[in-house]
Amino acid sequence: MGDQKTPQSLRQSARLSVAPMMDWTDRHCRYLHRLMSRETLLYTEMVTAPALVRGGAVHLLEFNPEEHPVALQLGGSDPVELAKATQIGAALGYDEINLNVGCPSDRVQSGTFGAVLMKTPDLVAECVAAMIGASSVEVTVKCRIGVDDQDAHEVLPAFLETVRAAGVSRFTIHARKAWLQGLSPKENREIPPLDYPLVLAMKSAFPDLHLSINGGIASLDTAQEFLDAGLDGVMIGRAAYHAPADILLNADAQIYGTGHFTTAEQSVLDMLPYIERHLASGGRLHQITRHMLGLFAGRPGARMWRRTLSEGASRPGAGPKLVLEALAHVQTAIEHGAA
């Protein structure tokens, strides 16, 4: 942990990644995930280029060196601003800069960004070319298979071809369309049907590209099936957040073939020094523990673990003692075989 990655080692890391998720994959969440897996590629929440370039919101990019390999995801559609934001992210040490061409949010900041860019592949090509020219850090794209009434089987290969010509060789494809009218961002993650065969077909059509698949994947076994089918990587979102132990504890051994293994209990203990540092700098416990609620999902004591942290972490003075109290409920439940 702690060293910047080369493009080649990033490709290895990208065999499994945790999706960028707004309000979820902040630096505290990523630190926890890194304790559980040394290899998995981690992503920031999406940060818009205007917020960095015009708003000066560089504090949004804070991260811990232990998080490597870690990628910054940018939102935007202005090549000049995206280039400047890329320079900022590269200077801070991010291993990868990713352009969001998949978010269905209707929030518009400095024009359009996210999934609507699927309609303008030439603009995306212009954006990534500017980003690539701005630094030596690898630039990647996360996209959908299409939007609204587009024919995904026509749009997606044309999009990949156009953006590849601008210099991008690594894509993550969310295997759903985005519906920009009539569906909320949450519904866009669940309602449009998944088309895994189309993403697999893109690997056959573009064997030179590094392609990761995203959308509805909820287990390491399913991830391994996609890797075995020829895809280069798998990105997991909600399952990695809500039940991180199920995805990340065995990832290094199963996906990467390394010997690193830890437990959910040990991960809690390993978080305590980090929590102490955060509190000492003026932070609050709940800012970290909200990302830890799913650590024991499906295990004895999970309910009391969640309740103890949910009810107590926002109280003044809450700290490591509360976390250990919550962990004791888990240990007691295991000893007594309780739920």
Categorize the overall geometry: globular
Largest sheet: 8 strands, parallel, barrel
Question: What order do the helices and strands follow?
Answer: HEHEHEHEHEHEHHEHEHHHHHHH
Q: Give the helix tally.
A: 16
- Radius of gyration, taken over Cα atoms and rounded to an integer in Å: 20 Å
Provide the CATH superfamily of the largest domain.
Aldolase class I
Summarize the structure.
With 339 residues, this protein is α/β, with parallel strands linked by helices.
How would you describe the overall organization of this protein?
The protein is α/β, with parallel strands linked by helices. It is built from 16 helices and eight strands. Strands 1-2-3-4-5-6-7-8 form an eight-stranded parallel beta barrel, surrounded by six helices. The protein is globular.
Topology:
Elements lengths: L6 H7 L2 E3 L8 H10 L4 E8 H5 L16 E6 L3 H14 L3 E6 L19 H14 L3 E7 L7 H14 L4 E5 L10 H4 L7 H10 L4 E5 L5 H9 L4 E4 L1 H5 L1 H5 L2 H6 L7 H17 L5 H4 L12 H11 L7 H17 L3
Parallel strand pairs: 1-2, 1-8, 2-3, 3-4, 4-5, 5-6, 6-7, 7-8
Provide the descriptors you would attach to this structure in a database record:
339 residues, alpha/beta, TIM Barrel, Four Helix Bundle (Hemerythrin (Met), subunit A), 2 domains, eight-stranded parallel barrel, 16 helices, 8 strands
